[in-house]
Amino acid sequence: MNRIRKGDDVVILTGKDKGKKGTVEKFVSDNKVIVQGLNLAKKHQKPNPSMGVPGGIEEKEMPIDLSNIGMFNPETKKADRIGFRTLEDGRKVRYFKSNNEVVDI
């Protein structure tokens, strides 16, 4: 079970987009994710007429390491750490470490 999952709201903790909020779009590897609209890099694309690819400079979302992002806590309006807890009914859930509120319901 991962601490951060696809669709979670996260805050970037380090780098050029520090403090910006976004949503996890997909996992690239076990410890790298792509956050929607953040960590953009310019890529120079060579045209390929046979495949219908136009040339030019495009902005591309690049992967971010999981250590550089934190879950967004809506109560505190800040990034927060995530822990795991087992409920009375036997379910394993994630919770915010700062206020002990359960993330998954």
Distance between the ends: 15 Å
Q: Briefly note the structural class of the backbone.
A: mainly beta
CATH class of the domain at 9-79: Mainly Beta
Count of runs of 4 or more consecutive helical residues: 0
Element order: H for helix, E for strand: EEEEEEEEEE
Q: What is the C-alpha radius of gyration, as a whole number of Å? A: 17 Å
- Share of residues in strands: over 45%
Give the neighbour order of strands across the main sheet.
Answer: 6-3-2-1-7-8
> What fold name goes in the CATH topology slot of the domain at 9-79?
SH3 type barrels
Q: Using the 3D structure, state the CATH architecture of the domain at 9-79.
A: Roll
Helix content: under 10%
Mean pLDDT: 92
The shape, in one word, is: elongated
Task: Characterize the largest beta sheet: strand count, sense, and whether it forms a barrel.
Answer: 6 strands, antiparallel
Q: What can you tell me about this protein's structure?
A:
The chain is mainly beta and 105 residues long. The chain has a domain at 9-79: SH3 type barrels (Roll). The chain is 0% helix and 47% strand. It has no helices and 10 strands. The protein has strands spanning 9-12, 21-29, 32-35, 40-45, 56-61, 64-65, 69-73, 78-80, 82-86, 92-96. The protein has a 6-stranded antiparallel sheet, with no helix packed on it. A two-stranded antiparallel sheet has the order 4-5. A hairpin with a 5-residue loop joins strand 9 (82-86) and strand 10. It is elongated.
